[in-house]
Write a structure and sequence with these properties.
- With 424 residues, this protein is α+β, with helices and mostly antiparallel strands.
- The protein folds into two domains: 272 residues, 2-Layer Sandwich (Antithrombin, Chain I, domain 2), CATH 3.30.497.10; 121 residues, Alpha-1-antitrypsin, domain 1 (Roll).
- 28% of the residues lie in helices and 30% in strands.
- It is built from eleven helices and 17 strands.
- The strands form three sheets. It has a seven-stranded antiparallel sheet with strand order 1-17-16-9-8-7-10. Strands 3-2-4-14-13-12 form a six-stranded mixed sheet, with helices on both faces.
- Belongs to the serpin family.
């Protein structure tokens, strides 16, 4: 669940002269507490930004592992990067805006839009139990070196738009204890599915601050699969190898269906009908041709283009976990300056020599007859210089999947299953 902590004291007027964003000054001047109220008008632009970033990040990860399973939670990474962007300036900020597909005006529209999307998702799903109704929670936090002075405006944006409170840690004197505290925080908020986000050695005595996000989903299917009907069946990988995997069978009834040149898709709904998992399978050999089309427009047409009809579905059971370091990937996507000594993160702190050391991300997903469980965590590490009638849809070849919020078209988790028998 997104933390709803009180904001810090109002920013002194002198800070306004330092180039504090207008929306931060407005927030500081209000003197109110808690998250900034959601602005529904900002949600569409934020959803478009998340879809654009999702497409870019997925294509990069898929290209790096052409013959393997892939999973990530771009929404989690986007939130962690957006919090970092709140303290960036000059070229660093411009590059991060481009990679995040940030809408105009920058950075206000992105902060406001992500805050709105996050609160709307919380309102829909945070009270679910994960057994009868979907449960979806997110959390953000900021972990700082004991002697690091943060700019009040930066803290104000993180508290007001991301619900992220600052937690001072002794990175210098108790490095391992600090790493374990952050890992415990992430594990507690992902039902222990992400037990060690920060691997040994990722935190050092010169670590200045770490920005973290978690996302956790547990959701039952609207039409649960019948457990006795699950049977071992062949699944043909793109390299031609056939593996035997447990294949689930309905009964299934009405759900989203979409068919176009080269691929078709089914949108498998979770219990309340608001969340679903889109499963995309090529109609010609090879998933790569479908992945090559993946951009914001393609994702939008997929997630918002389904038509309801009866479908007979067979779907593999699988679990998979993927930890990744995203520094090189994000640099390649267009934000290299943030990882160099030329980085401008002066909006975070009076320390003039901060840069992003790495962005780490880990995602877990498990799919069975009852439903889905998925979790992810992201950390930006800052140092000085995450049987009715109708078509048959038998998923027996590699496929792409996207767990998404139906009304907004926001993708939450995206992945590829090349081999359901591989767990990591």
């Amino acid at each position: 669940m997104v933390s709803r902590r009180s904001l810090l004291q109002a920013v002194p007027l002198a800070v306004a002269a330092l180039g504090v964003p207008v929306h931060a000054r407005r927030r500081a001047a209000s003197g109110s507490s808690g998250r900034v109220p959601p602005d529904p008008a900002s949600a569409s632009a934020a959803a478009t930004a998340v879809r654009g970033f999702t497409a870019d990040l997925y294509r990069s990860l898929a290209a790096a592992s052409p013959d393997g399973n892939v999973v990530c939670a771009p929404y989690s990474v986007a939130l962690a990067l957006a919090m970092t962007r709140a303290g960036a300036g000059s070229t660093t900020a411009d590059e991060m805006d481009t990679v995040l597909h940030a809408p105009q005006p920058r950075p206000a529209a992105l902060d406001n839009g992500l805050n709105t999307v996050d609160q709307l998702l919380a309102a829909r799903y945070q009270d679910g139990d994960g057994i009868k109704a979907p449960k979806l929670t997110t959390a953000n936090a900021l972990w700082t070196r004991l002697d690091l002075t943060l700019r009040p405006a930066f803290q104000d944006v993180l508290a007001g738009y991301y619900g992220a409170a600052a937690h001072p840690l002794d990175f210098r004197g108790a490095t391992e204890e600090a790493r374990q505290e952050i890992n415990t925080w992430a594990s507690d908020r992902t039902n222990s599915r992400i037990p060690e986000l920060l691997q040994s050695g990722s935190v050092s005595p010169d670590t200045a601050l770490i920005l973290t996000n978690t996302i956790y989903l547990k959701a039952p299917w609207r039409y649960p699969f019948t457990v006795p009907a699950t049977a071992t069946a062949p699944f043909t990988r793109d390299d031609g190898r056939v593996v035997d995997v447990p294949l689930m069978r309905g009964p299934f009834e009405r759900m989203g269906y979409l068919e176009t040149d080269g691929w078709r898709a089914v949108d498998v709904p979770f219990a309340d009908g608001s969340l679903a998992m889109a499963v995309v399978m090529p109609t010609r050999p090879g998933l790569a041709a479908v992945e090559a089309q993946l951009d914001e427009a393609w994702l939008r047409s997929l997630l918002l283009g389904f038509r309801i009809q009866d479908v007979r579905l067979r779907l593999p059971k699988w679990t998979f976990r993927l930890p990744v370091q995203l520094g090189a990937t994000l640099s390649g996507l267009g934000m290299p300056t943030a990882f160099t000594a030329r980085a401008d993160l002066t909006g975070m702190s009076t320390d003039p020599s901060l840069k992003i050391d790495d962005v780490v991300h880990e995602t877990f997903i498990g799919i069975d007859e009852k439903g889905a469980e998925a979790a992810a965590a992201s950390a930006v590490i800052i140092r000085p210089p995450s049987i009715p009638s109708g078509p048959d849809f038998f998923v027996d070849r590699p496929f792409l999947y996207v767990i998404h919020d139906r009304s907004s078209g926001v993708p939450l988790f995206i992945g590829r299953v090349h081999d359901p028998s591989v767990t990591r």
